[in-house]
Design goal:
Its main location: nucleus. One of its GO terms (molecular function) is nucleic acid binding. One of its GO terms (biological process) is negative regulation of gene expression. Belongs to the REXO1/REXO3 family. This protein is of the alpha+beta class. Among the domains are: about 200 residues, Nucleotidyltransferase, domain 5, CATH 3.30.420.10; about 55 residues, no CATH class. It has 13 helices and 17 strands. Strands 11, 12, 13, 14, 15 and 17 form a six-stranded mixed sheet that branches. Strands 1-2-9 form a three-stranded antiparallel sheet. A two-stranded antiparallel sheet has the order 3-4. Helix 11 crosses helix 12. The N and C termini lie far apart (about 85 Å).
Length: about 400
């Protein structure tokens, strides 16, 4: 009996667990939780960096052809001597409710023999404009949030101020529900804004578009960039940009002051707030000059849906790698996988999750890492293939006849 007591005391002294009969009984009475623990989130990964020269060589097969760039909505130059561009925009892949549009036969576009580019002001001179003149000179836009038509003057003024009721989420699932509120397609919007907004382009041919620039001399290098935009009276305009190098270091970052009045800062997605643009000093022209200081005509630019960024930046460039094309949607073009879904699935990284909006620096690094991941996968695949092939020896008749 004395030995048992000594062994009992020695065991609890070694394990550091004090003798507590009441606690032990409570633990014995506690039901065991047989539920499986939730799966741990995937560990964020950063692909191994390689030299810029190696990366540039590995990416040459993935450069978009001019035909593919045209189909994806990239700006292309009209000729090498001008600063004008043309853009072809595919119709949006998401379902849109039918709109009842009334056509004004007195609009300038419908006057027989009239020019579509005629604004209707040439014959007016200094005569004061009437309300009917303003109506005839109005431009009709499709709101990219609620899919309703609205009208603005060519100077960017709203003819009617109407609240925009919209869903900010995507339509997903077999039952076509919005991700923002889980309501079915066609339901009343769960968010409201003061004005309707448009993107600055329309489905089909757009152009000629002014103010585009391009690099004229080679500089080499590989960079990933991401831009954030806000809605102005002229459509989407550049508000923030970040550029990183192949080794992940930040090369350029800047806020940009839009040239037209801001209608909506698009904070949920852009992360831009009024106070940010209040301290922005650079214009689009300033940013273009800065970018062309290190981007040449042979520099490879990487991005996710890079066509949107180059249109906002008004940059013509032909050496581009787009992660939308590198990791295509299972249902094919023009559907695109989101950067958030690709980062979570392939990198185990969560991006674009906060309510503060997107970070151009975070998105640029995610795009660069997705490209590096593809390059490493292709290298590993080639290495496995070379190891599986038998080593063929040259035919030697003397050895064979022996």
């Amino acid at each position: 009996m004395h030995f048992c007591i000594q062994w009992h005391d020695w065991f609890y002294q070694e394990t550091g667990a004090p003798l507590d009969s009441a606690g032990a009984a409570a633990r014995r009475r506690r039901p065991r939780d047989r539920r499986r623990p939730p799966p741990a989130p995937p560990t964020p990964s950063t692909p191994q960096r390689i030299s810029t020269e190696q990366l540039a060589e590995a990416l040459r097969p993935h450069l978009l052809s001019p035909k593919r760039m045209w189909a994806m909505g990239y700006p292309l130059e009209i000729d090498s001597t001008s600063s004008k561009a043309v853009v072809y925009i595919n119709p949006p892949p998401r379902p849109r409710p039918l709109q009842l549009t009334t056509w004004d036969v007195n609009a300038p576009e419908f006057v027989p023999g009239g020019s579509q580019s005629d604004s209707g002001r040439g014959s007016l001179g200094s005569t004061p404009r009437s309300d009917s003149d303003e109506e005839a000179d109005a431009v009709e836009h499709l709101c990219v949030r609620c899919d309703k038509m609205f009208r603005m003057t060519r100077e960017g003024e709203y003819l009617v101020e109407e609240t925009c009721s919209y869903h900010w989420g995507r339509v997903c699932g077999s039952d076509s529900r919005y991700t923002c509120c889980n309501m079915p397609l066609g339901s009343k919007g769960c968010s409201a804004a003061r004005f309707h907004v448009w993107s600055g382009t329309r489905p089909g041919m757009n152009g000629p578009l002014e103010g585009y620039v391009r690099a004229r001399s080679p500089r080499g290098g590989v960079y990933a960039l991401d831009a954030e935009m806000c809605y102005t009276t002229a459509g989407l305009e550049l508000a923030s940009i970040a550029v990183i190098a192949a080794d992940g270091r930040l090369v350029y970052k800047s806020l940009v002051k839009p040239s037209s009045p801001v209608v909506d800062h698009n904070t949920r997605f852009s992360g831009i707030r009024p106070r940010d643009l209040a301290r922005a000093t650079k214009t689009l022209r300033d940013v273009q000059n800065d970018i062309l200081g290190f981007v040449g005509n042979d520099t490879i630019l990487i991005g996710h849906a890079l066509d949107n960024d180059l249109r906002a930046l008004k940059l013509l460039h032909s050496a581009v790698v787009d992660t939308c094309a590198l990791y295509p949607h299972s249902r094919g073009f023009p559907l695109r996988r989101s950067l958030r879904a690709l980062s979570e699935e392939l990198l185990g990284r969560s991006v674009q999750r906060g309510s503060a909006g997107h970070s151009p620096l975070e998105d640029a690094r995610a795009a660069m890492d997705l490209v590096l991941l593809k390059v490493h996968e292709e290298r590993a695949s080639r290495a496995r293939l070379s190891n599986q092939l038998p080593i063929l020896q040259p035919y030697d008749p003397l050895v064979s006849s022996a």
